[in-house]
Specification:
It is built from 22 helices and 18 strands. It has helices at about 5-10, 50-70, 145-155, 180-185, 190-205, 220-235, 270, 295-305, 325-340, 360-365, 380-395, 400-420, 480-485, 490-500, 525-530, 530-535, 540-555, 570-580, 600-605, 615-620, 640-650, 665-675; strands at about 85-90, 95-105, 105-115, 120-125, 155-160, 210-220, 235-245, 280-285, 315-320, 430-435, 440-445, 455-460, 470-475, 500-505, 560-565, 585-590, 630, 655-660. The chain has a 9-stranded mixed beta sheet with strand order 1-2-3-5-4-6-7-8-9, with helices on both faces. Strands 10-11-12-14-13-15-16-17-18 form a 9-stranded mixed beta sheet, with helices on both faces. Helix 13 packs across helix 14, helix 14 (about 490-500) runs parallel beside helix 22 (about 665-675) and helix 18 (about 570-580) packs across helix 20 (about 615-620). Residues about 1-20 have low confidence and may be disordered.
Length: about 675
């Protein structure tokens, strides 16, 4: 019998049994039909967790927020060089002007309200939201100075500071910045504002009259978004009151409230719950998108607090009013802060009394002054942030075992937060049978509750060689290529099967038989503008499909060690997937001439928000040791050969890395895959 006849005969003996429950794999890949957006109505606000599950989710979600904001890793904290001047002494409090240099050449302005006396006093950060007059808005629906003055009279230091593009802080616009290049490096308005809030916290900690262990935050609308994002990532916020923003109906319509990856698989309600177990008051109104908060959003957050044995630390109140931070809402916040922070219970302490509005010239930091020298432009700001991020990647290049360990820990964390993909456990996998095949087994694979549907073909030799780890094949033409290669006398898959191997081939997202029309947001809509805030890119979805396939191969064949083979255009995507895989995984991938030094190449062919800041293929290279790695067509363009070699050298595994400048033959690749060597 010829080799070709032997292979065909072997296919015919395959069992068509499915090892996983045939459930929860939808008839249509839900990733093509479900479009999440700012006004998407969430049916499940926060999944059910036990305490250990929530603690794990908390760290994962916190990293997601930091990564989306461009704050993973945290930027270098330069000297704030604070200017505090123009003091106004009033009965029971004072007001001063403040300018902080939160980034080199970028200045944040605000006003500092201070109680009379030496302190130390608790303090409150007061971001203002999208009021026309910013931190100086004083209207019936919302008054930033009113809440600052009354909190100061009650015994709090208050720092009311600008959003970018408002009042004195106009060096940069309050708009969406740039395109895919900025998104690859996670440079944008939301992150810059969140960093301003973190630096504002740093500033309050420098003040001798502030109790550094008792700092909180409150704001309404876009200011509330800043409050719960800051509380989510910085535990120094010890108490908070987000007003009229925490909702499962609307997630924020401004560029400062949206960033790529921010709300993928999550929402503002779950992000707000990251404040637990610290005291938080959630204020809502009947006349805006927080109308359901007492019955929907608050109970969901309260369950997290109860899980942490701190149910009394979270409260909710609602007023019959339009979108606001009016006097009723402010007095509710005074009561909550007074009770939980000052230990006061007299309701009279929390009523607003007469106060005076200060002239604009006495409040604005640049009134009658020119902009500070050396102020950065938007282009310079973006270029400097990208340069800083690139330098933080370069600093982690390994040179010995200790530096490799640090790099692997850092890049695993960063790449996970950018790609938002993970290998599912066996119990989280589901399959359903596909079309009957004469030669092999066709099925559909998915993760329980995830809505994905991955076409899979499984091919096994009739005389399996258990020393050959199962092979997962990812090709641009998908399972059709795997079947064709298996039937060829000289094909790669046929060679693997002839030698006793087992092969799992997939149609990764929008490849091969997985190609399908996907729903698109309406042109010009917020859903289109903020698509990436809620939805993964094709590359990120393909990475997840590869991880899912590896998890399936491990479970099906009871083999921890798996070989991932990616001929053609899928090679670079597989390198990213391999970086997120735990355990022994051998990687054989076609580099395909991808230029990993080019933002344009990533934007065109391998787009994932935050990927370059997370370390791109330099970081991925540090995560390859632990299994064998063979890459071909690396040529002279773009593959970080020096990083890969440094990583394997530092791991004392240099012999396990092979880099070929040109292509490799199917026969040589089959030899490599079926060799008996172990990593």
């Amino acid at each position: 019998m010829s080799r070709f006849q032997w292979i065909v005969a072997g296919y015919g003996t395959l069992s068509l049994c499915v090892l996983f429950a045939a459930a929860e794999v939808p008839d249509v890949d839900q990733r093509n039909v479900e479009l999440r957006h700012t006004d998407f109505e969430y049916q499940q606000l926060i999944p059910a967790y036990d305490q250990a599950g929530w603690e794990s989710r908390r760290e994962e979600l916190r990293d997601q927020v930091l990564s989306a904001a461009g704050l993973l890793p945290e930027p270098v904290k330069f000297e704030l060089r604070p200017e505090v001047f123009g003091r106004l002494d009033r009965e029971g409090y004072s007001i001063e002007k403040v300018i902080l240099e939160t980034y080199p050449g970028f200045r944040l302005s605000g006003n500092l309200y201070r109680p009379t006396g030496p302190g130390p006093f608790p303090a409150v950060l007061s971001p203002h939201g999208h009021w026309s007059y910013g931190r100086l808005e004083n209207s019936e629906r919302g008054s930033v100075p009113a809440r600052a003055v009354h909190l100061a009279k009650q015994g709090f230091v208050v720092f009311a500071y600008d959003m970018i593009g408002y009042n004195d802080t106009r060096q940069l616009p309050h708009s969406t910045w740039g395109g895919k290049r900025e998104q690859l490096w996670s440079v944008g308005l939301l992150g810059a504002q969140l960093w301003n809030s973190i630096r504002a916290l740093d500033f309050l900690e420098t003040l001798s009259y502030v109790d550094k262990n008792n700092i909180g935050a409150t704001g309404a609308s876009g200011g509330a978004t800043q409050v719960f994002l800051l509380s989510a990532v910085d535990d120094r916020v010890r108490f908070s009151a987000p007003v009229n923003m925490v909702s499962g109906l609307m997630q924020g319509g401004s560029p400062c409230e949206n960033a790529p990856n921010l709300r993928i698989d999550t929402n503002n309600v779950e992000i707000a719950a990251l404040a637990a177990p610290r005291p938080m008051l959630m204020v809502s109104a009947t006349g805006d998108w927080t109308k359901n908060l007492p019955h929907n959003e608050f109970p969901a957050v309260q369950r997290i607090y109860q899980l942490l044995s701190s149910g009394s630390a979270v409260e909710a109140v609602q007023f019959d009013a339009p979108h606001n931070y009016n006097q009723q809402s402010r007095e509710a916040v005074y009561r909550f802060f007074g009770t939980h922070v000052l230990g006061q219970s007299d309701p009279e302490q929390f009523r607003e009394r007469s106060w005076s509005v200060e002239p604009l010239g006495d409040m604005l930091t640049l009134w009658g002054r020119s902009s500070p020298l050396g102020a950065v432009t938007l282009k310079t700001f973006i270029d400097e942030r990208i340069g800083d991020a690139n330098e933080q990647v370069q600093q982690l290049k390994p040179f010995d075992a200790d530096s490799l360990s640090r790099a692997r820990k850092a890049f695993r964390r960063r790449l996970s937060a950018s790609l938002l993909a993970r290998t599912p456990a066996a119990e989280d996998l589901a399959t359903t049978p596909g079309d009957a095949l004469d030669k092999g087994e066709m099925l559909y694979l998915g993760r329980r509750g995830a809505g994905d549907r991955i076409p899979v073909v499984v091919l096994e030799s009739p005389e399996p060689n258990e020393t050959i780890p199962p092979v997962v094949v990812v090709h641009g033409e998908g399972t059709a290529w795997v079947m064709s290669s298996g039937e060829s006398q000289v094909g790669l898959v046929g060679e693997i099967l002839y030698r006793g191997g087992r092969v799992v081939g997939i149609d990764a997202y929008q490849m091969g038989r997985a190609r399908a029309e996907a729903v698109k947001p309406e042109e010009g809509s917020r859903a289109e503008r903020y698509y990436l805030t809620f939805n993964r890119t094709e590359t990120a979805r393909r990475v997840q499909d590869i991880l899912t396939a590896v998890g399936y191969a491990r479970s099906r064949f009871a083999s921890e060690r798996v070989q991932l083979v990616c001929p053609g255009e899928t090679g670079p995507t597989c390198v990213l997937a391999r970086a997120l895989l735990d355990g022994p995984v051998d990687l054989a991938a076609d580099w395909y001439g991808f230029n990993a030094n080019s933002d344009q190449a990533f934007a065109a062919d391998l787009f994932v928000p935050g990927l370059r800041r997370a370390g791109d293929f330099r970081g991925a290279s540090t995560l390859l040791p632990g299994g064998r790695a063979l890459l071909w067509n690396v040529g002279a363009r773009g593959f970080p050969e020096d990083w890969a070699k440094a990583a394997f050298f530092s791991a004392q595994q240099s012999a396990l890395l092979e880099l070929h400048p040109a292509s490799t033959s199917d026969a040589d690749l089959a030899d490599w895959l079926t060799s008996a060597g172990t990593p």
